Amino acid sequence: MYLTREEERIYNGEYGEVLEVAMNLLVSLGEIYGAERLVEISSAQVSGVSYKTIGEEGLNFLKDISKGDVKVAVPTTLNPAGMDLSRYEELNFPRDFVERQLEIIECFKKIGVEIGCTCTPYLSGNVPIYGDHIAWAESSAVSYANSVIGARTNREGGPSALASALIGKTPLYGYHLDENRMPSYTVEVETELKDISHYGALGSLVGRIVKNEVPYFIFKSPISRDKYTKLKALGASLAASGGVALYHVEGITPECKMGRIEIDTSERISIGREDIEEEYYRLNTTEERPDLICIGCPHCSLGEIKEVVDFIVKNNLGRTGFKCDLWVCTCIHIKAIADRMGYTTIIERAGGKVVCDTCMVVAPIEEIGYRNVATNSGKAAVYLPNFCSSNVIFDSTWEVLKKGL
């Protein structure tokens, strides 16, 4: 693998141990996957933030990195933590967990990572442009960046994304190369999809079939309003159930519009209404009432928050409120706008919480006492049983909210 002179000096430890470790990791990845060289990136998104997922070993690793007096070389955002960083006491997070989580956050702050703690960095300022090389971890963010924005990233792990952030480069292989961005499946969606949960169910179904390949979607009925929120839901569940890091949609995603996609029709899948209904049935694992309703996996856009508000206003819940806990998960940037719009007040008067920095998947909700979780997220429905030992109630946004009445 070719290295410039400066890259060689970093590799040989002339810029300190932390950068040496980072460069060695990137070179090792490049050699494994046949990269000819490194390429400069415009941004990074780092995962491995929740104490629930990285534990004591991960915390010690971050402590070692943050002692090295180094800073990230490119704008770098952070994945969701295991708790709301401001309201952890109010939300009953365990004290030991809180202490460890705050230590993790402090480590990232020391090296210059933006503490936005979101899986939707493209909604809060980390917005690459078409063709940018980036190094992003977090499966749904990778899927959105590759597919909807047309930037280029592999599905990085936490350590490799952090190494790229420190060096400002990533190995040139995988989805950074044109030839690896071509579709290998054509998916014809014969039925109309309306709610974002429909797109989550579609992604869950297709992801299991295509694994980590690249699907090309043809929707026979056009995607209705708020198409990018629906593509966010589609990509998130594709990544959760099958490891898909890139998909294309005929007439919508940028590489299709620009004529850069060569369609391989050797593998074709047809999806009808019955297939979506069967996936709904498969994702539901209980008929009990929810202990917790969670909206926002990936984190809510302002439009998704407004949909919750519309439900509350229509059902006059300012008086009666929900009969179970409600979390509307989003990033601190979107919550600030929701605060100004009055949305946060409406939700919290009805007994809900607008929760920042975390989500139901990476938070220790099982320790807080939540067992039955209702969600409109295909991604969460896939992850919750294994990550949180949760029973899942999966449905459309309004139907999920009705279960709390």
UniProtKB/TrEMBL annotation:
Annotated metabolic or biological route of this protein: Isoprenoid biosynthesis; isopentenyl diphosphate biosynthesis via mevalonate pathway
Signal peptide extent: none
Enzyme Commission code: 4.2.1.182
Biological process annotations from GO: isoprenoid biosynthetic process
Enzyme class: lyase
Source species, domain of life: Archaea
Ranges of residues in domain Phosphomevalonate dehydratase large subunit-like: 1-401
InterPro entries named among the record's database cross-references: PMDh-L-like_dom
Keyword Iron: yes
Any one GO molecular-function label of the UniProt entry: lyase activity
Subunit comment: Heterodimer composed of a large subunit (PMDh-L) and a small subunit (PMDh-S).
Protein role: Component of a hydro-lyase that catalyzes the dehydration of mevalonate 5-phosphate (MVA5P) to form trans-anhydromevalonate 5-phosphate (tAHMP). Involved in the archaeal mevalonate (MVA) pathway, which provides fundamental precursors for isoprenoid biosynthesis, such as isopentenyl diphosphate (IPP) and dimethylallyl diphosphate (DMAPP).
Family affiliation: Belongs to the AcnX type II large subunit family.
PANTHER family per UniProt: DUF521 DOMAIN PROTEIN (AFU_ORTHOLOGUE AFUA_6G00490) (PTHR36577:SF3)
The protein's name in its UniProt record: Phosphomevalonate dehydratase large subunit
Native source species: Methanothermococcus okinawensis
